[in-house]
Amino acid sequence: MRSANYAVVEDSNRVVLKDLGPWDRHPTITNDAEGVVEREFQRLKGRKLFYIDSEGQMDELVYDVDFGKFIGFKPGPKP
Predict the structure, then answer these.
(1) How far apart are the C-alpha atoms of 67 and 75, rounded to whole Å?
(2) Rounded CA gap, 44 and 68, in Å?
(3) Which residues, in sequence order, are CB contacts of 2 under 8 Å at separation 6+?
(4) Are strands 14-19 and 70-75 parallel, antiparallel or unpaired?
(5) What is the model's pLDDT at position 24?
(6) Cα 4 to Cα 12: distance, rounded to the nearest angstrom
(7) What are phi and psi of 68, to 5 degrees?
(8) Any residues with CB less than 8 A from the CB of 20 and at least 6 apart, and which?
(9) What is the residue-wise DSSP string for 21-74?
(10) In this structure, what are the phi and psi dihedrals at residue 52, rounded to the nearest 5 degrees?
(11) Dihedral sign computed on CA atoms, order 62, 63, 66, 68
């Protein structure tokens, strides 16, 4: 299966990813949320995981901190 193409743009008290595309060849982070959480889980160490989507909106990928499973989406911080 294809996976999202993204970059880590912040790795501090939180992790922020940026969706890079191109979306005709890669799914967005939104559409690959389970895979993204699985791939990034070791880096997270319980920190919040945010992403900047293809339209520039920041949202949170909520995950189970014990097992690294994607749970859902949550609106990100306001600019």
Answers:
(1) 22
(2) 9
(3) 25, 26, 27, 32
(4) unpaired
(5) 92
(6) 22
(7) 70, 25
(8) 5, 6, 7, 26
(9) --TTTS--TGGGHHHHHHHHHHHHTT-EEEEE-TTS-EEEEEE-TTT--EEEEE
(10) -100, 115
(11) negative
Are the beta carbons of 36 and 5 closer than 8 angstroms?
Answer: no
- pLDDT exceeds 90 at position 54: no
Assessment of whether the complete model's pTM goes beyond 0.70? yes
CA distance 40 to 29: 12
Phi and psi based region of residue 77 (left: phi greater than 0; alpha: psi -120 to 50; beta: remaining): beta
Residue in the structure block whose two tokens are 């945010």: 50
What's the full length of the chain, in residues? 79
Paired with 49 in beta bridges are: 15, 61
Q: Which two tokens stand for residue 8?
A: 């880590």
pLDDT digits (tens, 9 = 90+) for 16-39: 999 999 989 999 999 999 999 999
